[in-house]
Amino acid sequence: MTDKDFMELALAEANKANQLGEVPIGAVLVYEDKVIAQAFNLRESLQTTASHAEMLVIDKANEQIGSWRLEECTLYVTLEPCPMCAGAIVQSRIPRVVFGAYDPKAGCAGSIMNLLQDDRFNHQVEVAGGVLEEACGTLLTTFFRQLRQKKTQLNSNKNYKN
């Protein structure tokens, strides 16, 4: 399978999040060309800060492999990792990350900073960004547009009743 094939699987995970009203971000972790873990954002459902897709998929992979070290794995995620997730990626020793959409507000794989390739850390990560970028970005853009519309409608209804 190719990077695009695995990103399609991450997009399928993101769509699961979308169906739950979660920010639609999905992730899969691959070892020896096999998906060993998959996850999607659950921050609203679980009300925990660390319930990002990357954090959840790393936890699942740790259980699957039986180690905190995820060497020889590739992480596929639909949005560029944030600082928290980038830190977990470095700490788990994942050697390669492939992401879809860039995140100009919180991206730490090149957009704001690049924690994944900072040579001050004892581990650096190979990064490939922009894989199925349009599909990943459109999913997020549509989600946030609909969320804003719902808020506007709620506010309009409140004002109308007053």
From TrEMBL:
This protein's name: tRNA-specific adenosine deaminase
Organism: Paraliobacillus ryukyuensis
Catalytic activity: adenosine(34) in tRNA + H2O + H(+) = inosine(34) in tRNA + NH4(+)
Necessary cofactors: Zn(2+)
UniProt xrefs under SUPFAM superfamilies: Cytidine deaminase-like
Self-association state and partner proteins as the record states: Homodimer.
Active site: E54
Record PANTHER family: CYTOSINE DEAMINASE FAMILY MEMBER, TRNA-SPECIFIC ADENOSINE DEAMINASE
GO MF, one annotated term: zinc ion binding
Protein's job: Catalyzes the deamination of adenosine to inosine at the wobble position 34 of tRNA(Arg2).
PROSITE patterns, per database record: CYT_DCMP_DEAMINASES_1, CYT_DCMP_DEAMINASES_2
GO biological process, one term: tRNA wobble adenosine to inosine editing
Classification of source organism: Bacteria, Bacillati, Bacillota, Bacilli, Bacillales
Residues of the CMP/dCMP-type deaminase domain: 1-119
Alphabetized InterPro entries for the sequence: APOBEC/CMP_deaminase_Zn-bd, CMP_dCMP_dom, Cytidine_deaminase-like, MafB19-deam, tRNA_aden_deaminase
Annotated family: Belongs to the cytidine and deoxycytidylate deaminase family. ADAT2 subfamily.
Cofactor binding note of this UniProt entry: Binds 1 zinc ion per subunit.
Protein EC: 3.5.4.33
Positions bound to Zn(2+): H52, C82, C85
Keywords linked to the UniProt accession: Hydrolase, Metal-binding, tRNA processing, Zinc
